[in-house]
Amino acid sequence: MMQNQYSNISGAESLWLTHTVRNSTTAGISAARWYQLDVTGGTVAANTTQAANHEPDNTVNRFMPSLAVDRSEI
Length: 74
Fold this sequence. Notes:
Blueprint: E1 5-9, E2 12-22, E3 30-40, E4 43-44, E5 50-54
Antiparallel strand pairs: 1-2, 2-3, 3-4, 3-5
């Protein structure tokens, strides 16, 4: 699993997390799951701000999820 990624864009702090999960529609195929958690003053929110699975197709895929930061927004 990837380590958590921290972002602070114009004062909006977030933690981003990702890991591999089972595809929700096709048995035996993996998917990448990602989450965003808000951070306020060093306190991490109990609930996710955003979360989703990336399930591109029904072929056999092996995912090692990774997060990338778009530096143009910082």
